[in-house]
Amino acid sequence: MWQELGVAICLLLVLEGILPFLYPRQWRGAVAQLIRLSDRRLRLMGLASMLLGTALLYLLH
């Protein structure tokens, strides 16, 4: 189980690094927009992301 968790974290880092590597200017603009969002909106986005990830894991497994 720990090996799969390590692999998942490594893949997450690779995927998160793609956009700043390919489009640094646009990525910086997107981060600047995220900074201006309210805490409530960020929490809702985080919740939606977790629910989508959970649903996709359920469907794929």
TrEMBL record:
InterPro entries given in the database record: DUF2065 (IPR019201)
Keywords associated with the record: Membrane, Transmembrane, Transmembrane helix
Name recorded for this polypeptide: DUF2065 family protein
A Pfam family hit: DUF2065
Top-level division of the source organism's lineage: Bacteria
Matches recorded under PANTHER family: INNER MEMBRANE PROTEIN (PTHR38602:SF1), INNER MEMBRANE PROTEIN-RELATED (PTHR38602)
Keyword RNA-binding applies: no
Segments traversing the membrane: 6-23, 44-60
Organism, scientific name: Pseudomonas lalucatii
